[in-house]
């Protein structure tokens, strides 16, 4: 079986969020939830619970975003330095 990018879902306190997604994306999430459930031996009753771990995984593995974050942390606040000078 192909290794999926997501692993088992953490049992975490739910937070309610309202978002509209296309029906095709909902079908894909449902199919992914089924595949993930089979791969990890768990039942995923609500495929929308995949959205947060998918977004977290996406952000964590986006190299360009990581470089941007690293760059912004290492560069001094030039505007702030000019104001205080």
UniProtKB/TrEMBL annotation:
Instruction: Identify one Pfam family in the record.
Output: DUF2274
Lineage top rank: taxon: Bacteria
Q: Which InterPro entries match?
A: DUF2274
Q: Which protein is depicted?
A: DUF2274 domain-containing protein
Q: Which organism is it from?
A: Methylosinus sporium
